[in-house]
Amino acid sequence: MTWGVLQFPGSCDERDALNACQIAGGGGPDQARLVWHEETDLSGLDGIVVPGGFSYGDYLRAGAIARFSPAMTAVADFAAAGGPVLGICNGFQVLCESGLLPGALLTNERTRFICRQGDLVVGEADSPFLTGLEADQTISIPFKHQSGRFFAPPELLDRIESNNQVAFRYAPGHNPNGSVNDIAGVTNEAGNVLGLMPHPEHAVEAFSGSTDGLAIFQGPALTATGGAA
Amino acid sequence: MSEPSPHREGFGVKSAHRALGLTDHEFELICEKMGREPNGVELAMFSLLWSEHCAYKHSKKLLGKLPTEGPRVVMGPGENAGAVDIGNGYSIAFKVESHNHPSAVEPFQGAATGVGGILRDVIALGARPIALLDSLRFGEPDTERTHYLVDGVVRGIGHYGNSMGIPTVGGEIYFEPPYEQNPLVNAMCVGIARTDEMVRAAAAGTGNKVVLFGSLTGRDGIGGASVLASAELDEGDDAKRPTVQIGDPFEEAKLLECCQELLAGDLLVSLQDLGAAGLTSSAGEMASAGNTGIDIDVGLVPLREADMEPFEIMVSESQERMLAVVEPSKVDQVLALCTKWQTASAVIGEVTDSGTFRILKNGETVGEIEIDDLVDGCPLYDLEPEEPTDWTYQNRVSIESDAGPSDIALALLASPSVASKRWAFEQYDSIVGSRTVHRAGVADASVLDIPESNRAIAVAIDGNGRRVACDPFQGTIEATLECAANLAVVGAEPLGVTNCLNFGNPEKPGVAWQLGRAIDGLAEACRALEAPVVGGNVSLYNETPQGPIYPTPVVGMVGELPDPAKVAGENWREGDSIALVGPFDPSLAGSELEKQLGQLGKGLPVREITPVKQAIELVREAVRSGGIRTATDVSDGGVTTALAELAIASGTGCETNLAPVLARRECSDEDALFGEGPGGFILAGEKSELEKLGGQGVDFELIGEVTGNEIITNAGSLKVEVLVEEAEAAFDSLEDRIESDQAGLTH
Amino acid sequence: MIQARVLIRPKEGILDAQGKAVEGALPALGFEGIEHVRVGRIVELQAESIDRLEELCEKLLANPLIEDYEIETITG
Amino acid sequence: MIQARVLIRPKEGILDAQGKAVEGALPALGFEGIEHVRVGRIVELQAESIDRLEELCEKLLANPLIEDYEIETITG
Ligand SMILES: Nc1ncnc2c1ncn2[C@@H]1O[C@H](COP(=O)(O)OP(=O)(O)O)[C@@H](O)[C@H]1O
Ligand SMILES: [Mg+2]
Predict the structure, then answer these.
(1) Burial class (CB within 10 angstroms; exposed 0-12, middle 13-18, buried 19+) of B472
(2) D20 touching C, CB under 8 A?
(3) Distance of CA D43 to the CA centre of its chain
(4) What is the pLDDT of residues D1-57, one digit of tens each?
(5) Please, which residues 20-49 of chain C have a Cβ atom closer than 8 Å to chain A?
(6) Structural domain of B576
(7) Which domains are delineated in chain C?
(8) Known catalytic residue at A201
(9) Is B147 a catalytic residue?
(10) Closest among B422, B438, B740, B685 to B559, alpha carbons compared
(11) Which listed site, A124, B296, B536, B557, has its alpha carbon 20 to 30 Å from A105?
């Protein structure tokens, strides 16, 4: 499995994502590369990560400018063809802005940036990224963001819920931003595109206190080989 | 050159030098060196490079006392940042810098641009920043002004570091009345570089091109940092306001990646950041360091506002800019990389062999100064120190003199300087970069993984200004020892020191005395610890009509440790034994409790460094051996506070008796519970592991065990007995007091 | 050239965190009798023509799911 | 009750990082001929009286050091 990790001006967590892809794949050198935002050729890549950070300074609105990049046009095609796409934090915001995922992310209820370890409960969504996890399982993943309050108008929210598109919810008492229905991550209808505000790429090495994020990066390869958790 | 008209750039009037902060004597010296009067451009340039901020005219002689050499030093004072060898071909670069006065005027932008500035110093060495720390001082948290400052500064620091993707992993915040009008905002940056790829700031190679890249040059901070940093703030502050610098971390994020690619491609001869005094200082210092001359054509500088005067362009402090010297054949590649990173760039001049700094405008000379006169010509002043006879700071009472030990314990935990700062640190991204093993608040020092050289580093920053006010020499020694103690509890050994000397007006004898004694103390402690000072910063004139700040040397230390898996934390377990290790000899002098009682006065008890150093080494080795789960040094609030903090961190209480301390030292029961001083560690773990530390020439006592849901500490006739829950509530009480009236609007 | 001003506001019914934070800070600062605070964005620009301003708003300046926008123009 | 609208903009000469970033992004998005983009804030509120609005702007809504503000009111 070879990953491409998008890099925009202002991306911050792209190297962390690269690192996570490499660890998930067993440490070989060819398992991930950076994809510059002007690139349009994604051939040879089996999965895409749209990483966290502050693409274009988060100016105007988080993700608003990055979604117009040439690479994002290519990612839309990649996703339409069923390729796995993971958006983390700013990447989630970019995927929502570009319409690849439903909903929007608003400024945290308390308006401030928040960075802390927290618990997530795995949802019912049918997604290659969740292959190594079980619904209702609790995992520990760090949160860090200022605009992470997931919002969808009532009809859209109903659809997300009834289609089982919720991939992660904040565990009771862990919602850091006021997200509706405690939603921390959602998938598209097909399940191959996942966006989440918490940072699984920062939970892949023992020294960080949790390796629960690894399963998310390992999911697509497991799915491809027909493995299940 | 054609003699430029002295009146052209708008200064003209003969006494302009005074408004720009130069003394008559300094102005005469300039005229003498030039053999004529400077014109406006030249005068503006001189006034900035001869300011306290750039010339260190009141501190340079004293700084010479600091030990700066050691086997691991790669770059010492004089470069943009210091650097130490971390093995396997890598170095760690680091420096601390102040942004006090800009933050007093505009806290959000002041703090943000402070972070941006120190990042650029580390980037300029060719290093990639991997961590930030910050050391903050405010007035007591019960005024609207303090709330406003805290809110803005904390958000500003977070905004810049978070947006850049550099983790803020540690820091400290103290609240003391003398900082009310003049807060301190010191930021420290740590970076990593391949040692053989690090660049110096010296210009070299006649005919090489000078490239300016990054943000456009605007009128930001004209006369800003230098004037602001060299004059006391007073009621007339408003006049200085339009010169506030604005930070754009997005621009700096691009600049960082661009610099990294430029260096990886071996495209640069030298690199320098633009900080205080902008182009004047960076180009002048580059030429000075390289013994060259330099020509800069202001007509080639990409501007944000079209109608800027040459002097404005030369002294503009627009943020997020870098200056590079490039061989002519590589200029196109350099400009192309800048374009890739969507950052403005232009060739604005050339390195010459003239030894002069020539300013041109579209080819015509508008100023010409000998580099030596500009960069090294400023007179250095001797201070006239005089020890004050009395305690010169006010001290109000905030605790009843008949309060019982348990009430005192809670009051200390709730005291703003002691209470939890989690609400602040949680606003900082502390994990981006995937190196953070221990972030702020988890252990006394932050630990970062350095897989490049197969080890880890620990970083700490410290400086209790109140204790330094009591005794600048002893207090500064203690601050340095505390940094080393913080490193020891995570198993790290000091590699190098950086420092920021925040003081009042050095032309006042009392402040001069504080400064001199503090530097003596820093030198002595660093020498004893064999930790060379590789860089730093001096911030003087931190005073207002209400008086000077506490003298505040902030010490930053970087150490190394072999195995980040064996770091002691703050989580102890039911049944663990508790030991007090080290020559700790508690006294209320200068302590948090003495402050609350309103009894602060001059003097700290003298404590020898050597036994403290031995304790530090013993603890470090014990932690490295892996047998110690929990370790912390005893600092603000004394033993009881240290125990309470461990109990709060793990949710489990303790039962201890300080009888062994009372038996060994000549201290009172109250001293034992709440007294402070260097050289004390609280360790917890298996009894058999702890006992291994006995009999090694370092004082060692078992004082109790981890148990129950109360913090119980006995000392003679006194007993502290509080529920862990109550202690936690007190410890977590600061956030609500601080945030009540802030909307956090500025972005 | 057209001078345009685009006002972008959080949609009615969506919690406006910034507006709420401003309201929350008012009492401690001694301001009474102020309510319904809402914080939005204003984008001012000069455009050669008015034609694509609507599209610019829909696509970039506002997110129609969460924001309303209003264009005011002054032809100069 | 008064309905007030406060427009807050970066002061002339002060770096407008957002405006600059938006302007820089436009050509790539296929929008040509748009310039002088400036991004600010708009705060709308209801107040019992107009008396202290100026003070509210100075103290809380705007940062007079780096921002200009303009108050528009509609008495309702
Ligand atoms: N207190 C200090 N201790 C050691 N070195 C210092 C101290 N203050 C300044 N220096 C050194 O003096 C040089 C000039 O400092 P500064 O003007 O802050 O540098 P820059 O212009 O690169 O920000 C630097 O190399 C710095 O490390
Ligand atoms: Mg520098």
Answers:
(1) buried
(2) no
(3) 8
(4) 899 999 999 988 888 989 988 898 888 888 888 999 999 999 999 999 888 899 999
(5) 20-21, 41, 43
(6) 398-419+568-738
(7) 2-74 (3.30.1280.10)
(8) yes
(9) no
(10) B438
(11) A124
